[in-house]
Write a structure and sequence with these properties.
heterodimer, A: mainly alpha, MetI-like fold, 2 domains, 13 helices, B: 538 residues, alpha+beta, D-Maltodextrin-Binding Protein, domain 2, eight-stranded antiparallel beta sheet, six-stranded mixed beta sheet
């Protein structure tokens, strides 16, 4: 006992000796981190500030263009009001929200079923299937863009009908994103399944009574990534929407305000739109945040 | 235990929801997939069932002809176009009734969107002239019916009409003639007497600590201004299919050197800003070079301090050169269709939409400068400050023809190289770098474009084969020994093109070709400096 105490004291002493230099290095690290976080945060803060800028010029027009100062001279929510009343933004927002919601539900189910199957079942050519999907996954998705466009166009799911088209495309490929979940499921001891099976549980009961409660972080992670993806997709969404406002998602729609005919009149509304896009994703993220890190790292134990 | 049950229930609900959510994704296309087909057949039925519509020549059509079309026009013009189409329905004597679905699309993106998928593209669309060649090549433009070509040519500005032409074929209707740039300035900073001199303007901006914004680093459209100002030209040769087959360009010359010296003055100024965004006026700029589209925006930002005028002159070695510019236009295109009646009806509509009235309406509501000659002389048009400035600049402008897409990227880097240049040699290097790149587009090296050759009705060829010549120094070039016959004609040309060629003006041949006097084997010797050709018998 006393020996251990002594050792502990020695360790403590060592630490005490290091204290000054440790403090110094901590200070430096913090300064670097603070500077980095400022650099990272500046664009976001700027967008939020601009979106609340509400001043008028001599002629009484709203100053909607880029200006050289940061802090608005007059604050207000006119940009947000106008964004939702005068523009097609609500349509874009709704489009994206529908896509995100459907994808979030469908993709989560597909991914979890896929991961469970590949983790727990042993069937013929399971290995081949996994290798095949991995090889498919190695091709950049852009390669398929032309042919997917053709197919969607024949199904009349482009232009103003782009929303179901985009959902179909996003969801159709979701089965291949099972890796992280499968990795996580592999870490749950098989003995649990077997015990449940001995007690008479079906395979499905094993999944939803045993595996899913244990895999909560990974379920949350899957939901989050599925919900977030459509908000940022630009290339494919722009191609499918085919310049039709009714079929655009927020990224494509907001981008259409950046050309020379729009930017001066839409700059502050563009910023407001940017803030609005961040809202649902942020809310979801904050609610589910505590599971997120666990989910990302949990599945990484083995593949 | 309870929690598990609830979880199970939740999962079941989620799965049910998912199934429900799946449905619209699969159902909708099937449903909506039907609609266009049925619509299409209906439309066809009407077309064929309905009495003969306006036929070629536009003789009396019986009853009405229903025309269902899709149109793409810029956001701002959607409402006006709807009204104009209604006016066309009410006024046309052919009985055409147009039902148009109009979508907003910037004319800068038309070619991209049309060529993405021609089958679903709009039937009629506005586009900026620089997309013309791509659209013709892509088969996205129908030819203008021959009986309409003459009217278009007579009523509109010649350079705009030419912009809608590939070879001798008219493909597009003139819509505006306002796609150029000039100078907006802040009257409170820039004194009026300095407006004509680039050097004084730069000095004013530096003194006031305000930016001089002129997009040089990222846009060849703007930085070509200096080259055109110095008298350079860059012309691209187009064939009837809309393919670019050659270029005639002298940026890499003494004139080009003058241009880059002028450019150097601007881009090396500490107040220079490479931008054409008029929002710079709110960010410390006193001058922004931009176009008519920005007029209302500048008006909002600067209010009464708005000034608009033509570009200034720059001075090199005691001579003043007025900055040039590109002048361009917007065109209206009609998509080809197998139904000739339909195409003809669309052409009638296009003719109406580009008429004097329609162009004037567009000026009044949108500020678009008309291409129509009569409309351009309208009082209000002549009073608009932005159009006045543009017209003043247009005297120095070069009509923007069809330019190879690669040119924009090749030419825009000149200004960055000029900014880095430390001596005149660096400037020359920038130019020769430029010219070697543009000739590489046609896979011609400098050596190839400088090489001379003999061409003519000689040695069994008929003006279709170049016989190479070797450089003997001092501007003397000699061919191989050629077997020539009396009466055969030939010329010498440079670079395999007719831009530079030498014949014999005194030979009596109407085309100024050299004429062989007697049969024999000769070496053709060319003296480039004296511009003489002699035959040396072997």
């Amino acid at each position: 006992m006393s020996k251990e105490q002594k050792e502990a004291q020695a360790v403590m002493k060592q630490h005490m000796g290091l204290k000054a230099s440790q403090r110094l290095s901590n200070t430096i690290v913090y300064i670097i981190l603070i500077i980095m976080s400022i650099i990272w945060l500046v664009p976001f803060v700027a967008i939020v500030l601009q979106s609340f800028r509400n001043e008028t010029n001599a002629a009484g027009e709203l100053v909607t263009w880029r200006v050289s100062y940061w802090l608005p001279k007059k604050w207000g929510i006119e940009n947000y009001r106008s964004l939702f009343v005068d523009t097609s933004f609500p349509r874009w927002y709704l489009n994206t929200f529908i896509i995100a919601l459907v994808q979030c539900v469908v993709q989560t189910i597909i991914v979890l079923c896929m991961a469970y199957t590949l983790s727990r079942f042993r069937f013929k050519s399971r290995g081949k299937l996994m290798r095949f999907m991995m090889i498919l996954g190695l091709f950049p998705g852009m390669l398929t863009m032309l042919i997917l466009y053709r197919v969607l166009s024949d199904l009349n799911m482009t232009g103003e009908h782009a929303v179901p088209g985009l959902i179909l495309v996003y969801v159709a490929s979701s089965g291949m994103g099972y890796y992280v979940s499968k990795g996580f499921f592999d870490t749950i001891p098989k003995a649990l399944d077997e015990a449940a099976r001995v007690d008479g549980a079906t395979r499905f009961q094993v999944l939803y009574k045993i595996i899913l409660p244990l895999a909560k972080p990974i379920v949350i992670y899957t939901i989050l990534t599925a919900f977030m993806a459509p908000w940022g997709d630009f290339v494919f969404a722009a191609y499918i929407a085919h310049a039709k406002e009714a079929g655009m998602n927020v990224a494509v729609g907001l981008n259409s305000w950046l050309d020379k005919d729009h930017i001066v009149k839409y700059y502050t509304r563009f910023c407001a739109g940017g803030v609005m896009v961040a809202v649902p994703v942020s809310i979801l993220f904050m609610c589910l945040q505590k599971y997120y890190v666990e989910g990302v790292t949990g599945g990484a134990v083995k593949g | 235990m309870k929690i598990k049950r609830i979880l199970a229930l939740l999962l079941a609900v989620v799965m049910l929801l998912a199934l429900a959510a799946c449905k619209p994704a699969e159902d909708k296309p099937a449903e909506s997939g039907k609609t266009p087909e049925t619509k299409a057949t209906e439309a066809n039925g009407e077309t064929k069932g309905g009495e003969t519509p306006a036929t070629q020549g536009g003789e009396t059509p019986a009853d009405t002809y229903e025309l269902n079309i899709k149109m793409w026009v810029p956001d701002a013009a959607v409402d006006l176009t709807k009204r104009q189409i209604e006016a066309f329905n009410a006024s046309n004597s052919y009985g055409i009734k147009v039902t148009a679905t109009i979508d907003a699309l910037s004319e800068a993106d038309s070619a991209t969107q049309v060529l993405n998928d021609i089958s679903t593209a709009a039937d009629m669309y506005f586009f900026a002239q620089d997309q013309f060649a791509r659209l013709v090549r892509g088969g996205a433009l129908a030819q203008v019916p021959p009986d309409m070509v003459a009217t278009i040519a007579a009523d509109n500005n010649a350079s705009v009409v030419a912009a809608g032409k590939s070879g001798d074929t008219q493909y597009a209707y003139p819509l505006t003639n306002d796609n150029g740039y000039f100078m907006y300035y802040d009257k409170s900073v820039i004194p009026e007497e300095d407006l004509d001199s680039l050097e004084k303007l730069i000095a004013d901006c530096e003194a006031a600590g305000k930016h001089f914004a002129f997009e040089q680093d990222t846009s060849a459209w703007y930085n070509a201004s200096f080259f055109f100002g110095a008298g350079c030209h860059s012309d691209w040769v187009l064939n009837d299919d809309g393919s670019i087959v050659g270029v005639d360009d002298d940026f890499d010359s003494d004139k080009g050197l003058i241009a880059v010296k002028g450019m150097e003055k601007l881009v090396k100024s500490k107040m220079f800003l490479s931008s054409s965004d008029v929002a710079e006026f709110a960010n410390g700029a006193a001058i922004v070079v931009s176009g008519t589209w920005a007029y209302n925006d500048v008006k909002s930002i600067l209010g009464d301090n708005l000034g608009a005028t033509d570009l200034p002159s720059f001075e090199v070695d005691g001579t003043e050169y007025h900055l040039g510019s590109f002048s361009g236009c917007k065109l209206l295109g009609v998509k080809p269709d197998s139904d000739t009646d339909r195409v003809y009806a669309m052409n009638l509509l296009a003719q109406y939409l580009t008429s004097e009235t329609a162009q004037l309406e567009r000026f009044n509501e949108l500020g678009w400068g008309p291409a129509n000659n009569a409309a351009a002389q309208n009082e209000k048009v002549l009073e608009n400050p932005a159009l006045v400035a543009l017209n003043a600049q247009n005297q120095y402008a070069v009509p923007q023809g069809q330019i190879d897409g690669a040119w924009w990227d090749i030419a825009k880097v000149i200004s960055a190289e000029v900014k880095e240049a430390k001596s005149e040699d660096d400037l020359k290097a920038a130019l020769s770098n430029y010219s070697s790149k543009i000739y590489a587009i046609f896979e011609k090296t400098d050596a190839e474009k400088n090489a001379w050759s003999v061409i003519g009705g000689i040695c069994g060829s008929s003006w279709d084969k170049d016989f190479p010549m070797t450089d003997k120094g001092n501007g003397i070039f000699e061919s191989e020994a050629l077997e020539l016959h009396a009466g055969e004609t030939f010329k010498c040309r440079q670079g395999g093109s007719w831009d530079v060629n030498i014949g014999d003006p005194n030979s009596g041949d109407p085309d100024g070709n050299c004429v062989v006097e007697a049969d024999g084997t000769y070496i053709v010797r060319l003296d480039v400096n004296a511009e003489t050709i002699e035959l040396i018998a072997q």
